[in-house]
Amino acid sequence: MTESKLKGFFESFLDKEPLFVNKKVLLSNYTPECISHRDEQIDVVGKILAPALRLDKPSNIFVYGKTGTGKTLTVKYVVDNLKNVALERNKPLKVIYFNCKLKKVADTEYRLIAQLAREFGKEIPATGLPTEEVYKTFFKILEEEEQLLILILDEIDQLVKKAGDEILYNLTRMNSDLEKSQISIIGISNDLIFTDNIDPRVKSSLSEEELVFPPYNAMQLQDILKQRSQNAFKEGVLSGGVIEKCAAYAAREHGDARRALELLRVAGEVAERTGSETVKIEHIDDAEEKIEKDRMLDVVNTQPKQHQSVLYSILSIYENKKNIVFTGEVYDVYKKICNKIGLRPLTQRRVSDIIAELDMLGIINARTISKGRYGRTREIALTMPDSNIVNIKKILEEGLNLS
DNA sequence: GTCAATTCACATGAAAGAGACCACGGTCTAGTG
DNA sequence: CTAGACCGTGGTCTCTTTCATGTGAATTGACGA
Question: A356 beta carbon < 7 A from strand B?
Answer without folding.
Answer: yes
